[in-house]
Design a protein that fits this description.
This protein has 245 residues and is α+β, with helices and mostly antiparallel strands. Helix content is 47%, strand content 21%. Helix 1 crosses helix 3, helix 3 runs antiparallel to helix 4 and helix 3 crosses helix 5. The radius of gyration is 24 Å and the shape is elongated.
């Protein structure tokens, strides 16, 4: 849907002189190719970055992918212009301006698609059914309400939930998702997930704890992903009760 809307808007407005140099059909073809290229290349690069760097947040990966891919897409777009018999090289779009435009397209559409996909999954996942071999519908496997808020590709074994400004980092064995909510509300949505609050800014899954380190009066939990989470005085008794000492 985003591709269709953006392609139509660019074709009708005709930026970079395309309105005067190309007819509507040509503009539709041109901008359909450009927008599709931005979406595909940026999405592939974003997935590659998140696969390589597990702790990289999706927003950051989207920005990096949009910026890195834009210059190459700008060169390819200029080539498409030449194939469409642009009057002269001098009248073709400036590479710098074209690159900046493609950065906006790649990053903007990436954020839009992410927002739409997240909202759709939040609404659809709890109602999803799977078919048994005999054709009877059964409920999808249970997951906590918090887990339904993050992208499907990041849903996995929960490691920790950490507060950062107004956002939360939900860390699983498949990566890190960023959501806007309070930690207390997130803990409530974890339902029966086995874990505990160890700090005003951190909740950890018991199964993810690898060790407890003490340095003087400071405690911190070492988790399986290599991260370290501080344990505040308020929650030390809870940590001890769970046998994590």
């Amino acid at each position: 849907m985003s591709w269709v809307v953006l392609t139509g808007a660019l074709a009708l407005s005709g930026p970079f002189g395309t309105y005067s140099q190309l007819n509507l059909d040509q503009r539709l073809v041109l901008w359909a190719l450009v927008v599709a290229g931005c979406l595909v290349v940026s999405a592939m690069l974003r997935l590659a970055l998140m696969s390589r760097f597990k702790r990289l947040q999706k927003r950051t990966a989207t920005v990096i992918a949009g910026v890195v891919s834009a210059p190459f897409l700008a060169i390819a777009t200029r080539h498409v212009f030449s194939l469409m018999h642009w009057p002269s090289e001098d009248q073709a779009p400036n590479l710098v301006e074209l690159t900046l435009t493609l950065v906006v397209i790649g990053v903007g559409v990436g954020f839009l698609c992410h927002a739409v996909a997240t909202q759709v999954w939040r609404e659809v996942w709890p109602e999803m059914k799977v078919e048994t071999p005999v054709g009877q519908a059964v409920a999808a496997p249970h997951m906590s309400r918090l887990m339904t808020r993050i992208e499907p590709e990041l849903r996995g074994e929960l490691i920790r939930v950490s507060a950062r400004d107004h956002y939360l980092d939900v860390v699983t064995d498949k990566g890190t998702a960023e959501i806007l909510m309070r930690l207390s509300d997130a803990v409530a949505e974890l339902e029966d997930t086995d874990g505990l609050r160890v700090h005003r800014s951190h909740w950890v899954a018991v199964a993810a704890v690898a060790a407890l380190e003490r340095e003087g009066d400071k405690w911190q939990l070492v988790l399986r992903d290599g991260s370290r989470v501080p344990v505040s005085r308020t929650y030390r008794s809870a940590v001890a009760e769970r046998g994590l000492i």
